[in-house]
Design goal:
It contains no helices and 24 strands. It has strands at residues 3-7, 11-14, 24-26, 32-35, 45-52, 58-63, 92-95, 108-109, 122-124, 142-147, 161-166, 181-192, 195-196, 203-212, 219-226, 229-237, 245-247, 252-253, 260-267, 270-275, 278-284, 294-302, 309-310, 312-324. The protein is globular, with a radius of gyration of 21 Å.
């Protein structure tokens, strides 16, 4: 189906058509070319925003060579302040919610490519940039976006994800043991959830995990919407067998688009989880999880498929920190 496309300045063309500035429509697999006139003054930026219905705004910039005599004005679609993104390449690798390479599984972006990688599923924001979920971003945030019908699945999953997997070194998936103190903390907003096919149906996403070296994560922190509201909470596997999860007794009310903080700490096998500085659960993994090794995850692991929901989930991270002592 064709979707609407427009630019705020300059022109665009679709496939081999003529350049135009008039809003139009574009289809899947069409080739889009954009152009905008550069500024006459040295060191001056001109930004062009491309808007395609259902996708995040894409901003293209042209900066005239030389040094500007005065700073150019700042606007929501043409930020000139330095952009300081989270350096995810030092965290690990990215799993995408699609199988674009045709290898029968979720595509992955290695850590060595993350400093230059950007797509509708994972990108750093400029101030005023509008995301697919309708959130007006701040400078330097990171968007994880995943449509329920993305089609790219990991071997053990039935839902899609745009999610980071912690690695100690580029391309190295060696995990850490429960000995010592291991902590991950972050600040984020869930800015979009899938739409349930049944009114009041349960939809949600996992925004952080403590994972093991098999398919049973000891801790998942999730943002869920039900007929009674939206909240963040934890789910826990008491054993290494998948499917034995239980929910935390404490659930923190959080609205769509509201900032939240979290922390997962494993201290010599004792795991404590916090949301908005409130302890939601403490678990002792020493007996059931002896001999296991672990890693953290962060991002947007959707908890719905096309059988229960439509649309997409969107998680916007503004900070993250991991430490191992």
């Amino acid at each position: 189906m064709p979707v609407k496309i427009s630019v705020d300045r300059g022109e665009y063309k679709i496939n081999s058509g003529a350049f135009t500035s008039t809003p139009g429509t574009i289809r899947n697999k069409d080739t889009l070319t954009v152009r905008v006139a550069a500024a006459n003054s040295p060191g001056t930026e001109v930004a062009q925003t491309v808007k395609i219905a259902g996708l995040p705004d894409q901003v293209f910039r042209v900066i005239t060579a030389g040094t500007a005599s005065t700073a150019p004005p700042v606007s929501p679609t043409s930020p000139t302040q330095p952009r300081t993104f989270i350096r995810w390449s030092s965290y690990g690798k990215l799993t995408l919610p699609v199988d674009a390479d045709g290898k029968n599984g979720a595509d992955e972006i290695p850590s060595t490519a993350l400093d230059t990688y950007s797509s509708i599923y994972f990108y750093g924001t400029s101030a005023g940039q509008k995301t697919a979920g309708g959130y007006v971003a701040a400078n330097g945030e990171t968007v994880f976006w995943a449509p329920v019908n993305g089609g790219g699945l990991t071997p053990s999953a039935k839902f899609v994800r745009s999610e980071m997997r912690e690695q100690w070194a580029n391309g190295n998936s060696v995990n850490w043991s429960m000995v010592g103190v291991h902590t991950q903390s972050g600040r984020l907003k869930v800015t979009q959830l899938p739409k349930p096919k049944v009114a009041g149906g349960r939809v949600g996403t996992v925004f952080a995990q403590l994972h093991s070296n098999n398919n049973s994560p000891p801790v998942k922190l999730a943002f869920i919407s039900t007929g009674s509201g939206t909240y963040a909470y934890g789910t826990y596997n008491n054993t290494t067998e998948a499917g034995n999860g239980v929910a935390s007794a404490v659930k923190i009310p959080v609205a769509i688009g509201q900032s939240l903080t979290y922390e997962i700490t494993m201290n010599n096998g004792i795991v404590t989880s916090k949301i908005n500085d409130q302890v939601i659960d403490t678990r002792d993994l020493r007996q059931q999880w002896a001999g296991q090794t672990f890693y953290f995850k962060a991002g947007n692991y959707v908890q719905n498929g096309t059988d229960t929901a439509t649309g997409a989930a969107e998680v916007v991270y503004s900070s993250i920190s991991s430490s191992h002592n």
